[in-house]
Amino acid sequence: MDSRLFLPGWGAPASLYAPSLPGSWLALEPPSFAASGGSFREYRRWLDVELRDRGRSRLAGHSMGAALAILAAADSPELVERLLLIAPAGLPLVKPIRESVRDFVRQVARGDYPRRVAASAVLAFARAPRAALAIATHVRRLDLRRECAKIRAAGIPTTVIGCAGDTLVTCANARALAELLGARYEELDLRGGHMWMLADGARFTAIVARGGC
Questions:
Q1: Per-residue confidence at 14, pLDDT binned at 50, 70, 90?
Q2: Where are the alpha helices (DSSP H) in the chain?
Q3: C-alpha R_g of the chain
Q4: Side-chain-facing half-sphere of 24: CA atoms under 13 Å
Q5: What's the domain count of the chain?
Q6: What is the pTM (predicted TM-score) of this model?
Q7: What domain range includes position 28?
Q8: What is the structure's pLDDT at 199?
């Protein structure tokens, strides 16, 4: 049976998603900001090694993790069975970083993040703020149109999930990426924003289970 691998978003540890993943899925732990040295290529190299070690896989990812999944599928389509892209980065984003930071602070204050996970994310940023911001800036500027065309040509089945309340990866961005990929598009009418899975773990579980079939 092929591997089923989930790729976290920017700054998010695997433990943020793992509790809500179906049992057959594994959330991978990306390199830390410090280990990356602020180079997005380090994340691409890391994922390439993971895929070559595990063989043909089904990939799901959130935000930056979804962008990494797109890049991996374009680079090595023979290693990717299927894609599930949740609020995928991959087209230029316009929401200012400071607004995303404010959203994170509000979510922590509301208790949306488990305390240990929130503390881990803050510590990872504090250890390498320049690297973290360099990665964030790179992800915000991604334009993966060519990569999407390669995936579409390879015929890799793909599902894209957008959320009506997401102000970072907007529904317009998610729909545009789905069109470029020739993917099935699903839009959620939820208020949870970019991190809606924190408020609705059951929906997240069902979507990953369905999208990985």
A1: very high
A2: 14-17, 33-36, 40-54, 64-75, 97-110, 115-127, 129-141, 145-154, 171-181, 201-211
A3: 16
A4: 15
A5: 1
A6: 0.95
A7: 3-211
A8: 86
